[in-house]
Write a structure and sequence with these properties.
Blueprint: H1 3-6, E1 14-16, E2 26-27, E3 38-40, H2 53-58, E4 63-66, E5 78-81, H3 85-96, E6 105-110, H4 115-128, E7 133-136, E8 140-143, E9 146-149, H5 157-169, E10 174-178, H6 181-185, E11 194-199, H7 207-210, H8 213-225, E12 232-236, E13 252-257, E14 264-272, E15 275-280, E16 283-287, H9 292-307, H10 312-320, E17 330-333, E18 339-343, H11 348-361, E19 368-372, H12 382-393, E20 396-399, H13 409-417, E21 428-430, H14 434-444, E22 450-454, E23 461-464, E24 467-470, H15 473-485
Parallel strand pairs: 2-3, 3-4, 4-5, 6-10, 6-11, 7-10, 11-12, 12-13, 13-14, 18-22, 19-20, 19-22, 20-21
Antiparallel strand pairs: 1-5, 7-8, 8-9, 14-15, 15-16, 17-18, 23-24
Helix pairs in contact: 3-5, 4-9, 9-10, 11-12, 12-13, 14-15
């Protein structure tokens, strides 16, 4: 693409050097520069892209986008000065790939918990309705029937536009995308045209990155602030910050709730480990999903489908055939009658939700054993909170390792233990080895007891000192439960 077309609708402060070169690729990592590429000098949290301009030119970059022009300008290189290189990168990527987000209905879901579930549910609902779609989630990227391994919750903006362009090329009409707070803060959604934005909930998470809850909230809200007037914003008004998301949005506002009056209202009529009988908008239907948090997820997916123009009867029919999302309230039952629940819950709010959902279902004759830990090199403040919640709401809590990363697992466990209330000291034990923790839970459990494995969900690895070791909660349960029955 020639530079002039690439800069369409992008505010530029100054251009110097060659007038209108042909650009082969857009790069923001100087190490990936290729012949005739355009390098965008983005200021990151660790390093400043301006320091690598010469390195990018040495590898073949023919044009440079930057906020501050270098002292020495090469006459054969085109320099484009802009106010904000990070935001410009998104606009450039969108132009380079033919503005794919304008050629399909792009739906973004943000919030602390539920993003993966809602986007995956939407992908499956719309597939059941007969439409080809793309899915960009923590678990995987899917374009129609093609599955691509996922690297980030929200990919970098160049990769994002590549994926969306491929979706357009493969005749997809919709794209469902998780929008993380990191992605919003780092302008990875810049230049994208969202038709619908959905908010799940917000609670204590990522404070290692955002530093304060106020900053985290502000970042999430920015996604809605930047929607265009033709978009639709759908928020959960049962969440105390649900209405905050809509305060400055130009988009059409819609709400959903279980507890309060809303545009989309749902009720749980019956629930057990096999599923739930629900009522949405006066219509009853059965789903194999279970847990109150899943009712919120389904209700948001339902609202998105209605706002996309589908008939409620068709949507509910599509919902009733859905299978559980991998690693989200995924249930197994051993030959000996022990129930296992595998869930990605790794925040205080998510852990409390999953425990409340299980406690709502169980008759209290069964014991609830919770195995959980906290990730290393992440938010320390949530650790004692999770220790308090798990021991308060379980018969027994086994504190173990999640992804310790570069931290000492024993130190992480100690921080979790600090939140355990004195009256619950007898209700927990600590086993740093996750496999040993699962083994102990199975030995302790009796028929009908429930073992919750929280924190890892779909993940099939444990990250220890920078190395990812294969570890899958579901595989481990199947192996150990089988051993127990011998």
């Amino acid at each position: 693409m020639n530079l002039e077309a690439l800069l369409n609708r992008i505010p530029v402060l100054e251009i110097s050097g060659r007038k209108n070169p042909e650009i082969s690729e857009i790069i923001f990592d100087s190490r990936k520069a290729v012949e005739d590429s355009l390098y965008v000098a983005v200021r990151g949290t660790v390093s400043d892209g301006h320091s690598f301009i010469d390195a990018a030119i040495a590898k073949g970059a023919i044009a440079i986008v930057c906020e501050v022009l270098p002292e020495n300008l090469y006459p054969e290189i085109t320099y484009i000065q802009v106010k904000d290189a990070s935001k410009t990168l998104g606009q450039l990527a969108s132009n380079f790939y033919g503005n794919p987000s304008e050629k399909l209905s792009l739906i973004g879901i943000t919030g602390t918990n539920g993003k993966t579930s809602v986007t995956t549910l939407l992908f499956d609902i719309f597939k059941n309705l007969g439409f080809k779609s793309a899915l960009i989630s923590t678990v995987e990227y899917r374009i129609a029937d093609e599955i691509i391994p996922s690297t980030h919750t929200t990919p970098d903006v160049v990769r994002l536009n590549q994926l969306l362009a491929k979706a357009v090329e493969m005749s997809c009409e919709y794209a469902f995308m998780e929008v993380s707070s990191h992605g919003i803060h780092q302008n990875r959604t810049e230049g994208l045209n969202f038709k619908i934005a959905g908010f799940t909930n917000i609670s204590h998470d990522h404070l290692d990155y955002h530093k304060t809850f106020s900053e985290y909230l502000k970042t999430k809200k920015r996604f809605f602030d930047e929607l265009n007037p033709e978009a639709i914003a759908i928020t959960n008004i049962d969440d105390k910050n649900g209405t905050v998301m809509l305060q400055n949005t130009k988009a059409t506002q819609k709400t959903y709730a279980l507890k309060t009056m809303a545009n989309y209202h749902g009720r749980i009529l019956e629930a057990d480990f096999n599923g739930m009988l629900l009522n949405f908008g006066g219509r009853e239907f059965w789903t194999t999903l279970t847990g109150k948090f899943n009712v919120y997820n389904l209700l948001l997916a339902y609202a998105v489908a209605i706002e996309s123009g589908f008939h409620e009867e068709d949507i509910l029919k599509a919902i009733s055939t859905l299978k559980k999302v991998k690693g989200r309230f995924e249930t197994l039952k051993s030959d000996s009658g022990i129930f296992f629940v595998i869930d990605y819950a790794h925040t205080p709010d998510a852990l409390e939700n999953i425990l409340d959902s299980i406690n709502d279902i169980r008759t209290k004759n069964e014991r609830l054993i919770t195995i959980f830990g906290c990730g290393g090199d992440r938010d320390h403040a949530k650790r004692p909170e999770m220790g308090k919640i798990a021991t308060r709401k379980s018969t027994l809590a086994i504190i173990t390792s999640d992804n310790p990363r570069t931290e000492d697992p024993a130190a992480i466990i100690k921080e979790i233990e600090a939140g355990v209330e004195p009256q619950n000291f007898s209700k927990y034990t600590s086993i740093p080895d996750r496999k040993e923790a699962i083994k102990m839970a199975i030995k302790f459990a009796e028929p009908r007891d429930i073992i919750l494995l929280a924190g890892k969900g779909h993940e099939d690895y444990q990250e220890i000192n920078g190395v990812k070791h294969h570890f899958d909660d579901k595989e481990t349960i199947m192996e150990l439960a089988k051993l127990m029955s011998k």
